[in-house]
Specification:
Belongs to the thiamine-phosphate synthase family. Its cofactor is Mg(2+). The protein is α/β, with parallel strands linked by helices. It folds into 2 domains: 204 residues, Alpha-Beta Barrel (TIM Barrel); 65 residues, Beta-grasp domain (Ubiquitin-like (UB roll)). The protein contains 10 helices and 13 strands. The strands form 2 sheets. An 8-stranded parallel beta barrel has the order 1-2-3-4-5-6-7-8, surrounded by 6 helices. Strands 10-9-13-11-12 form a 5-stranded mixed beta sheet. Helix 1 runs parallel beside helix 9 and helix 2 packs across helix 3.
């Protein structure tokens, strides 16, 4: 996703190291990007500021490679230090207007909201997007009452800026959230805590786009993408690029050692065991 079109995001993923003990942050988050996450937030409330800063630098390099916005939870100073694309603030954090004054007009500033008055206030005050939740009970917001899909429906009717449903959303209930009016969702444990992170992201994207497998046949096959084994039901390179969120990006695709021209993506079929190398060009290429 080009940053100028960040508002087109569908799948927002937040870090949660406690959900993937034994797997590194960078490996897990790269899997989310391979799976089609198009917004990433660093949230690490239990770490020291130095540790958060180190993670932010690592994620800044990773998200730059995939041309995906990096959002920092709470810490404006960390966002400035690593040149993140923006921050996400809670209701008790620095007021939005002060954050805007510090970060400037180009920064993406998101606000967590829990009822419609907060949502409309954030929209009026210049938030770039709002979080709507927690839709369901969640360990990341322990003790906070779930807003249910009723609040999702309210926001869908009244809020004009981008908004993302968040909180306890899983592949089992995301259909209910979408039916309530959400076109963007955010997940933590359901994604970073899953055994197959990239595949889970693709399943979320499939639900959000309303495309059964984005051209998939329903038959899951194992392919190798940039040296990693991945599961997909995409039948063609084009369908795979749709699932990964790469369809509109400047890509070079090599399938089984042969570079596939974009106009041939539809007819380039993916067989069991296929090997792909994907290169994404950013900026001037």
């Amino acid at each position: 996703m080009s940053l100028h079109s960040w508002k087109d995001f569908r799948l927002y993923v937040i870090t949660g190291e406690n959900y993937h003990t034994g797997r590194s942050l960078v490996d897990v988050m790269e899997q989310t990007l391979l799976g089609g996450a198009d917004m990433v937030q660093l949230r690490a409330k239990d770490l020291s500021k130095r540790e958060v800063l180190a993670q932010a630098y690592t994620l800044r390099k990773l998200t730059d490679r995939y041309n995906v916005p990096l959002i920092i939870n709470d810490y404006l100073d960390v966002a400035l230090a690593v040149q993140a694309d923006g921050v996400h603030l809670g209701q008790d954090d620095l007021p939005l207007k002060e954050a805007r004054r510090i970060l400037g007009p180009a920064a993406i500033i998101g606000i967590s909201t829990h009822h419609i008055d907060q949502a409309l206030d954030a929209e009026r005050d210049g938030a770039d997007y709002i979080g709507v939740g927690p839709v369901y009970p969640t360990g990341t917001k322990a003790g906070r009452k779930a807003v249910t899909t009723d609040y999702v429906r309210e926001v869908a009717k009244q809020v004009k800026i981008p908004w993302v449903a968040i909180g306890g959303i899983t592949l089992g209930n995301v259909g209910e959230v979408i039916a309530a009016g959400a076109s963007r969702v955010c997940a933590v444990s359901a994604i970073v805590g899953s055994e197959h992170v990239a595949e889970t992201c693709r399943s979320f994207r499939t639900a959000l786009t309303g495309q059964q497998g984005a051209g998939g046949s329903g038959e899951t096959r194992t392919i190798r993408i940039n040296g990693r084994n991945e599961q997909t039901n995409a039948q063609s390179v084009h369908a795979l690029m749709e699932q990964l969120g790469f369809a509109g990006k400047r890509m070079v695709v090599e399938l089984n050692g042969v570079i596939i021209a974009r106009e041939a993506w539809h007819t380039a079929l993916l067989e069991q065991g296929a090997s792909l190398e994907l290169v994404h060009f950013v900026g001037g290429g």
